[in-house]
Structures are given as structure tokens and as C-alpha cells.
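User: Structure with adenosine-5'-monophosphate-propyl ester, C-alpha cells only please.
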Amino acid sequence: METYRAFHQRSVTDREGFWREQAAAIDWHRPFEQVLDYSQPPFARWFVGGNTNLCHNAVDRHLQTRGDQNALIYISTETGQQTTYTFNQLHREVNRCAAVLQGQGLERGDRLLIYMPMVPEAVFAMLACVRLGAIHSVVFGGFAAHSLASRIDDARPKIMFTADAGMRAGKPVHYKGLVDEAIKLSAHPPQKVILFNRGIDVDLDMIAGRDLDYAALREHHLDAEVPVIWLESSEPSYILYTSGTTGTPKGVQRDTGGYAVALAASMQHIYCGKPGESMFTTSDIGWVVGHSYIVYGPLIHGMASVMYEGLPIRPDPAIWWKIVEEHKVSVMFSSPTAIRVLKKQDPAYLAKHDVSSLRYLFLAGEPLDEPTARWISDALKVPVLDHYWQTETGWALLSSVPGVEVIPPKFGSPGFPVYGYDVRLLHESTGEEIGANEKGVVTVVPPLPPGCMSTVWGQDDRFVQTYFTSVADRMVYTTFDWGIRDDDGYYFILGRTDDVINVAGHRLGTREIEEAVSAHSNIAEVAVVGVKDAIKGQVPMAFAVLKDTAKTATAAGRAAMEKEVFDVVDKALGPVGRPSRVHFVTLLPKTRSGKVLRRSIQAIAEGRDPGDLTTLDDPAGIEQVRSAISGG
Ligand code: PRX
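Assistant:
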């Protein structure tokens, strides 16, 4: 471990020297004057005075060396489409798209909200946006109108970029309809909606003066050359909303230069990809993993990125390995949930294809259980590396760093503190550092390294308040996770300290789901908890108190009411937030001060001991949860 240790040590004791070297991995239009400005803790500005651009680094700078090599390999098993773009072709499409956006008035600092299925045009729009110095806010397609509207109102985009529809398991998801609904709910609607028509939805309701057809606009800009706008390193590149304790998602704001450097360095030290090879990240562009490792990371590094629309088991469970074989994928990045889904299929599918091009399979987003880790590494016969990070960090915080030193993984551990992160496990209330094998809160002593969030969009106070004030009186960044370090220095993540749950690798706040459930007129009160699930890791489960209980006296009545609640959540949040069950009770377990005992409810739902109930106001609340669970 000596090489890794020395590398890590230098990254936190000689930040300037370390990151100055890493910064050489990207192009600077104007060199930076200062590596780090940390004069206003906890706000860190990296590569001050340097001018650069994400799109230039991801696309333009490769034209000379690898213009004819693949940049984007698009495969949809939903539509049967397969298209490949070289760096030259990607450059062409990005310029066309940038000209379209510029033609509609998108300028430096303006926001573009991208609400798109997994199609290449989504990537063109992201790259075109940052090319113009504008800021994108990509919203995951699984979010419905209400969630979309709250993000519109926070980011206040000048333009929205969307499509007619997405496809999931052969069924269309009507994006345009959801956009129309969200705009109706929004207090600050965009001026224009640019629509990429895939031809899935035939009955499109285009609103005159607001909605524009992308293909028609693109036709006018086929030869467009749109110059890159050089941004100062700290200028924002994008906003990405994520869930927390409150019902209002936070807009994680990312800078430009720090992010580009962090990703370029990670491609080398963590993922060990080589320019000219292919990387296949199975996430969605709506999540942070998609931003960093479907779009920017591989492209900045000169790799081809495989973008996949579809399920891992359609047309059959060998589809991903077929892609690996056909495109000689060297680095793959997926989620534990996806691997658990594959584990349930006939193992013969894994042997059908030659996956010898694969150097590593990385997994992240949720805890990787030991049986799943063991199964996939035995089956693939390539190293499987779990790593841990967050929307906020933008890249890995705990990981092995095989590009620096290969250290054998331990199943269940995402590895070690990554260079740049001064990770400490602290006692929750005293703020003291805890010893090996003791449970503590995962924290990072600031400054956070390049690539991490620079602030909460438009809310500097919230950034400080949310992330830097919760452990005793120490100003440390908390990740809101519990962790433990063993005697050998391997870290283990034990779960969140807040009300965030993780459903199939998707991060959701229980507060958001509770608010969505409460939108049903018959709901008086509701508590949502995350409950262990064999495939998805966790699923949300709701316990609701009704205003009028007459209709739920019978099992059929309860089932009908549950269905109504599902529909309300689908409409507000989208199917990602739908509870697995809604149990109806007349009382929730609460403390005498009125706080819902979510942890006790969760324990009962998982068949565990509910723990200390001395603060419970009325024991009937707990009994009701128990009988609801045992009654199915
Ligand atoms: O609780 C941790 C869990 O997911 C959270 C971050 O989720 P998100 O913002 O969606 O970012 C995902 C980026 C990969 C963390 O606070 N988490 C993430 N990776 C792991 C994990 N839990 C356990 N093991 C992991 N490898």
C-alpha cells in the first residue's frame, strides 16, 4: 500500500503541487495563476484565473489526434437503433446543436434544462451548452411533472431541450406531455422548448411561439462552426439536482476547470482507461454517474463512450456482454442493482461472449453486497471494484486507485480515501476521530478537491449549512453516511445518517415521497421509510393516516386506495418514487415532541428490533405498524 499511501498523502499535504501536475491532463486556453484559492472556507476555487472549456476538452482537442476514432457509440435495444459518431462527427453535431441553441438566444451563464431520454442528441445538447458557456441542468426522465416544475423554478432555464418520448421495456414514456404539464405548474417557465422528435409519439401538441422542432432548426446550421466560449475555471458548467433531508432538492453546482481536471485524472488513476479504447457506463445521463462517466470523463480522456438505452435483460440477459465483445470495452461501470438483476438469470448468458477486453468492472451508487460481488467477479473473471461517491463530489471519494497501485479488494469494501480527499471518520456528537473498527460519520476535511460541488445553486448559505455544520463544531464536509475502517485501512459504508434512501441506486429523499403522497386529498399524515429489498437494495414503504377511513374498511377498499396513492406519486414524482406498499394506520409512532420515529418503523418493516422506544408517545402507533406489516 506504500505507493498509494504516498500518493494520497502528497495530495492532501501538497495540494498545490499535486493538482498543478494533474491539471496538465487538460487543455488550458489561458494558464491559471493560482492552483487553489481557499480564502473563504469552505468555498474552494480551483485553478484561479485559468480559462478552459469542457466541450473543447471533450471534443475539439481530440480532432487532430483521433478525429476518425469513435467518440460515441449509441445502442438502443428499445428502438433497435445503433449509431456511431467519431470525434469529427460528434464535433459536427455539437456545433449544429450549439448554433441552434445560440440562435434561440442561449448565452454564457444562461441555463438550459435538458429533459431527455438516452439518445445521442442529449449528449450533443450537453456539450453544445457548455461550449456556449451556458449551464445545463439535466433532469432524469423518470421524474414527473411536479419534480420537473420545481427544478424549472429553481434553475430558471431560458430554454428546455426535450424529446417526444422515451421507451422503457417497449413502452413509450411521454416526455413532451410531462414537459407541458410541468410548464403549466411552473412560476418561471422557459421561453422556448426545443423538441427532438424521435417519431415515437405521433400526436404531438406543439405550442405555437414556444415549441420548436430540433430537426428543422438543425437543417439551417449544417455547416455551423460555433466558437468555444472560454470560461474562468470557477464558472459553473452545470447544475444537477439531488435529494436530501428536506422535500426541496438541492441544485449541486459544478465548476468548469476543477471538474475537467478531476475527471481527466480519475480516468487515468482510477479507471485505467486508455485513449482510443471504449468505456461502457450503464447509468443514465440524468444522474451524476452519467454526467461524469457517460459524457465528460471518457470523452475528455479520448475514449469512446458507449451509451445504452434499454434494460440489461432485453432482448436477453447477455446484451451487455455482447456490447462489451463487439466494442471491445475495456472499462465498464454499472450498479449493484443491475448486477443483482443479472444474477437471477441463467448463468450461461455470461459465458456467451468474449469479455476478455474488459480490464475492470466498477460498481457504485449503493452498497455492494458480498454475494453479488463474489458472483460477478467469479463469472466475469475480471477485477470488480466497488467505489463510493455522491452527486455532490462528482467523482469517487473512496476507491481503489489501480492506476497508482493495485491493492487486492476486500468484498464489501469500496476501498480507501481517494487522492485529494482528506477523509476522517468522526464521532457524531463529539467530532473526535474514531479508531479502527468503530462506527463514525464519513467526513472530509475541506477544502474539497477539484470536481466537487462548488455550492448549492443560488444558495451559498444552504451549502455551508447543509454540508459543513452537522458534526459537533468542526467545519468538515459530511457525506451523511456512516462508515467504518478495519485494521488494514479498508473502509466500509454502513448507510445514511439522514432520511435519504437508495432505490436501485437512485437517490431519493423520504420527505419528497411523503410530500407526493400527501397530495392525495384523503391523506392526513404519512411516513415513508426505506425497507431492505433483495434486488433494489431498498424500496420506499409508506404508512399513511387517512382523513376518511370509511372506504378502507375492506381489503378491496384498501387496495383501491393504495392504487390511488400510487397514481398520485407517479404523477408528482414519477415511478422512481412510487412506494412498494402503502399501509393504512390510524396513528403513526411519534415521540412526545411529535417527531415520527422513522427508524423504528423501518426496523419493524425489516423484521428487526425497533430499538429504544422510551421516547414514544403512544405505544399504539408501533403496534399499528407491526400489525400492518404482518397483515401484509
Ligand atoms: O449513501 C451513499 C450511496 O449513495 C449516496 C450518493 O448517491 P448519489 O448522490 O446518487 O451518487 C451516486 C454516485 C455513485 C452516498 O451518500 N453510495 C454511493 N456509492 C456507494 C454508496 N453506498 C455504499 N457503497 C457505495 N459504493
